[in-house]
Amino acid sequence: MPKHPLFDLIKNEPLFHSLVEKYGTPLYVYSKDRLIHNIQTLDQALGDHFESHHICYTIKANSNPHLIQALKSTIPALGADCASPGEIAISGKCGIVGNECIYTGNYESPNDLSYALETGAHINLDDISSFHRLKRIGLPKDISFRLNPGFGRGAFSQVVTGGENSKFGVPHYDIVNAYRLAKESGITSFGIQCMTGSGVLDPNYYPNLISKILKTVKKLKDELNIHMDYISLGGGYGIPYTDEDSPLNFDNVFNNVAQNFNVFFESRHEAKPALWIEPGKSVVGDTGILLTRVTGKKDSYKSYIGVDAGMETLMRPALYGAYHRIYKVGDPDALPSTKVDITGRICENTDRLAKDRLFPEVNEGDLLAVMDAGAYGFTMSNQFCTRPKVAEIFLAGEKPTLIRRRETIKDILRSCDV
Ligand SMILES: Cc1ncc(COP(=O)(O)O)c(C=O)c1O
Known about the structure:
Layout: H1 7-10, H2 13-23, E1 27-31, H3 32-49, E2 53-58, H4 65-74, E3 79-82, H5 85-93, E4 101-104, H6 110-119, E5 122-125, H7 128-137, E6 142-148, E7 170-171, H8 175-184, E8 189-193, H9 205-224, E9 228-232, H10 250-267, E10 274-277, H11 281-284, E11 288-299, E12 303-307, H12 316-320, E13 326-328, E14 338-343, E15 354-359, E16 367-370, E17 391-396, E18 399-404, H13 409-414
Parallel strand pairs: 1-17, 2-3, 2-10, 3-4, 4-5, 5-6, 6-7, 6-8, 8-9, 9-10, 12-14
Antiparallel strand pairs: 1-11, 11-12, 11-16, 13-16, 14-15, 17-18
The chain binds pyridoxal-5'-phosphate.
């Protein structure tokens, strides 16, 4: 069974002890080596199978500028997938500017739209009504719409973003109307985007998805004579969260996507658009470890291990029931002995990092490593119960750099002017 790619790192007890001694707990630690490996693997797979490609790293997965700068210096053509003015601003700080970015909003405010327009980001609209709102502000040269193809897939129902129950995108039966309106309003360049869910580990999903998108591309060409400059397949590429999950083989996935893509355009004698992707989790997910210290143990109707990180530090388990592997630092091979819930200090009964987990014996003060916390970890963290946000460390080999200092209670109060 495949072990976690950072499994051996967790054995390095002196390293983690020195980190928490200096920076405290809870602490997010990201492996730079793994981050670089992940982005290079994606770029290589796309480069091998597509004439032209563009990676827009999804900022909401992890918006620490130091991580984004490391990605940008590895892949100089890297773009960004942004969901808010703040994310466009962070991308800009990291050297990802103008039309290297794609801005995908939903129910966008006029302020959001004018910010995106001013920065020159590609604007990817969620709805025909978004186009009307944008037109009142000004129109860019090119535009894309987010297609909701009528189906979606995700690791949890909450992260399925396509289909009849999804708030996102233009339904397939309205997509021609959306592009017709844009063309009649003077837009001359077009792309199309589709993002139907997150955490998909089925390799066959992506070639099937591109085929569905291409059906719409055909309709738009045949009915409106619109040719796409780019097609964004969105993100959603899953990572293993358990030893039983198999990782996606990106060379295989994009080889199969490219086959459908290339046959389609070659048979129609049309120029091939650039293939864009918007990966988040597959770039940063497995690079991140959340270090937390055991604060208390309790035997009640169930057995609990209390730790100093909770749903305010890592929301995914409480939000989706997501499973994260948790290891004892220094001894990730330790054999489980008791069934426990691992919980934080928040006054909500959903505050769990693990439920009914067979876990090794631990003592107060022990350090635990919550794995795969790099994506939607810190970015979803909050200050509930007035808990300051935690510090973040970038680990190059064994060399740590503090990339975000721990917040203080004073920081939280700063904006209240008291
Ligand atoms: C529009 C868009 N693109 C890409 C992504 C990235 O998804 P993932 O992190 O699953 O790759 C998201 C995530 O929510 C998204 O909303």
